[in-house]
User: Which sequence fits this backbone?
């Protein structure tokens, strides 16, 4: 797919300011498709997947935050193939003509012309320099605490770390961070390696056959999570998941009489090797792969042949089938130098699963591209397609997107199950007072109802559910979306196409003339869209839309920041729903426990129950939830309705914090309130609620 048929989708990560405004203007003028504009604070490395986006434009701060920003950049680089790093230091800003240079750079990245050297890449060059410096001072004092090391390795704030430490009971802090999705297994291994002055065991270093099988018992290896890697003269090299444990090394020295060198294992790689070397037998994937001889040739005809071989077809269908069984929402297939990695996103969390060998990469990717009717000869540009499948008798729609990376194309498949599209508010997790208020605002004849929250917080699903409730004969509903995610019966849905000039604001202007009763706008991205939304609300339409803010009160100030006059905000907005998604406890295996007294005190849990003793629930894991203890997701919400007090405050241009305080005084519940209430009901856990609400002021 070339630039003619689809314009690059861009996300701007930048705090509000002149630079951001200019950047937006330039990109819009050039017809680039701005997917969203988020602030540095709102950016969460795991919530933006690379394939939703072609490019991230990051406006870096220099100054005191430089170190933090570089961590952010590292995280970005991991997720997105092309990140142009923008630098707002005084030196770069005053360079005249930066706008044109940026546009030229983007055009180059997305066209087939070979890139010409550009004099304008000082920003990028500078970042590389920064990175080198950073590696330079990355020497770490031995035995620094693992939590602190991890904080420095990943983009983890002290507050997040403290919060995780407070959740820690007898498990290791690395495990707590892992469960909360703050770090990956690789991060943990890297931190352990740094702390102990060791190196990480690479996947290729695991032996083909067990090493020293006669001398070391399988039981010892299994109980202590050790794999002998190799023997070299008098040296035995092992991989370990607990490299800090000197007992293991000492035992092996005694047992073998050799010197023992320890390498740090990455959990999933270690487990796969352990299963292969000492496990009961071959997995299904191993059996399939045994029948396939991959080779390095990769001309198109050859790819076609390989992709049509029976083992490859079975391999790909095994990957999709397992994903559907595991209730995954996305399948990520990512080639790296020596491995092909497969990960499923389950209940919002990416999890490593069994992967085919690296030599099958080209065949697997080609097979998926053939299924999605993509051009298998094109491997240098991103492509999008769709596949319809039947898995276990269910219709499954896969939205496939490919993006070229250093070691081949990376593929993300979004799984859309046709039967899970339409939800009701109960199923989504709405209940109590917030649910009643939300429905009340939804049922008003005109005005704006906003749903707000970070990417991946389920805003779209809530809007679709709301539309479904409003969708009765005699009402005309029109939506403007990008992309149209679900098709709703009897609703006119318009897909934004900015490459042909059909932007949100253009589409809106024409649909107002179609005399709808209800308008749904996928997202209020720019001032013009916001203005038209307000006008429509004031002329008798019900308008539903989303905004990208952390909490409900900030939405009102955001609208004013977008240029909507204060009196128009107060007269059009009826209510704002802020929401997050938490993982739902598996009802089959959750365990009821007495909440620890310090948790009860700190979170004031007694206010949510009449019982003397506060009880909460813990995840356990059973067959029905894939041993994770969680199954499905629930919303955690905050509903703010427009009251006279809030109207007065908006007119006085009070800030979001002040509005928040006033709304709380009038009885509005916080996201935390709703979440904790759900913990006591057994819907979810304190950990989950803290994970999604820690960024909100209470
Ligand atoms: Zn279970």
Assistant:
């Amino acid at each position: 797919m070339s630039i003619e048929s689809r314009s690059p989708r861009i996300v701007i990560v930048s705090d509000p300011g002149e630079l951001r405004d200019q950047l937006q203007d330039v990109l819009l003028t050039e017809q680039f498709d701005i997917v969203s504009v988020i602030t540095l604070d709102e950016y969460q490395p795991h919530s933006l997947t690379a394939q939703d986006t072609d490019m991230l434009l990051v406006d870096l701060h220099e100054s005191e935050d430089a170190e933090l920003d570089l961590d952010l950049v590292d995280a970005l680089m991991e997720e997105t193939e092309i990140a142009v790093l923008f630098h707002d230091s005084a030196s770069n800003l005053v360079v005249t003509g930066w706008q044109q240079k940026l546009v030229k750079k983007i055009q180059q990245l997305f066209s087939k012309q070979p890139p010409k050297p550009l004099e304008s890449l000082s920003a990028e060059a500078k970042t590389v320099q920064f990175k080198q410096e950073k590696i330079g001072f990355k020497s770490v004092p031995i035995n620094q605490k693992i939590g602190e090391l991890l904080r420095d390795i990943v983009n983890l704030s002290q507050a997040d770390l403290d919060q995780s430490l407070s959740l820690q009971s007898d498990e290791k802090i690395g495990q707590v961070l892992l469960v909360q999705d703050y770090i990956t297994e690789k991060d943990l291994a890297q931190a352990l390696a740094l702390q102990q002055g060791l190196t990480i065991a690479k996947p290729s270093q695991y032996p083909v056959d067990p090493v020293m099988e006669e001398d070391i018992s399988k039981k010892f290896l299994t109980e202590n999570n050790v794999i002998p890697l190799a023997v070299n003269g008098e040296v035995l090299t092992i991989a370990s998941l607990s490299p800090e444990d000197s007992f293991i090394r000492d035992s092996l020295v005694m047992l073998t009489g050799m010197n023992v060198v320890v390498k740090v294992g990455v959990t999933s790689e270690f487990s796969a090797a352990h299963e292969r070397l000492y496990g009961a037998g071959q997995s299904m994937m191993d059996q399939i792969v045994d029948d396939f001889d991959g080779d390095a040739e990769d001309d198109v005809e050859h790819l076609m042949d390989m992709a049509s071989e029976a083992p490859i077809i079975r391999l790909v269908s095994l990957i999709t089938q397992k994903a559907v069984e595991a209730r995954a929402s996305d399948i990520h297939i990512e080639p790296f130098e020596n491995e092909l990695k497969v990960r499923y996103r389950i209940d919002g969390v990416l999890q490593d699963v069994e992967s085919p060998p690296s030599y099958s990469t080209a065949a697997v990717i080609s097979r998926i591209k053939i299924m999605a009717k993509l051009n298998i000869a094109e491997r240098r540009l991103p492509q999008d397609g769709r596949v319809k499948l039947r898995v276990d008798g269910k219709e499954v729609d896969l939205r496939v997107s490919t993006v070229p990376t250093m070691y081949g194309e990376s593929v993300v498949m979004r799984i859309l199950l046709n039967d899970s599209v339409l939800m009701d508010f109960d199923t989504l997790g709405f209940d109590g007072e917030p649910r009643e208020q939300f429905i009340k605002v939804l049922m008003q004849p005109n005005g704006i109802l906003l749903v707000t929250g970070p990417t991946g917080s389920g805003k779209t699903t809530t809007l679709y559910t709301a539309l479904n409730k409003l969708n009765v004969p005699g009402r005309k509903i029109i939506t403007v979306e990008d992309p149209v995610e679900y098709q709703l019966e009897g609703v006119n849905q318009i897909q934004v196409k900015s490459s042909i000039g059909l932007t949100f604001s253009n589409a809106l202007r024409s649909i107002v003339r179609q005399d709808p009763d209800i308008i749904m706008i996928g997202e209020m991205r720019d001032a013009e869209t916001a203005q038209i939304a307000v006008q429509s609300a004031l002329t008798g339409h019900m308008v539903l839309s989303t905004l990208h803010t952390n909490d409900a009160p900030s939405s009102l100030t955001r609208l004013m920041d977008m240029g909507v006059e204060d009196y128009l905000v107060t007269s059009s907005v009826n209510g704002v729903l802020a929401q997050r998604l938490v993982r739902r406890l598996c009802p089959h295996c959750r365990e009821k426990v007495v909440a620890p007294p310090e948790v009860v005190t700190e979170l004031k849990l007694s206010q949510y129950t009449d019982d003397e003793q506060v009880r909460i629930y813990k995840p356990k894991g059973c067959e029905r939830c894939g041993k994770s203890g969680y199954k499905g997701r629930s919303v955690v919400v905050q509903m703010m309705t427009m009251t006279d007090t809030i109207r007065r405050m908006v007119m006085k241009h009070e800030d979001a914090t002040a509005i928040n305080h006033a709304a709380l005084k009038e009885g509005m519940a916080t996201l935390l309130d709703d979440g904790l209430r759900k913990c006591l009901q057994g819907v979810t856990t304190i950990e989950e609620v803290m994970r999604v609400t820690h960024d909100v002021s209470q």
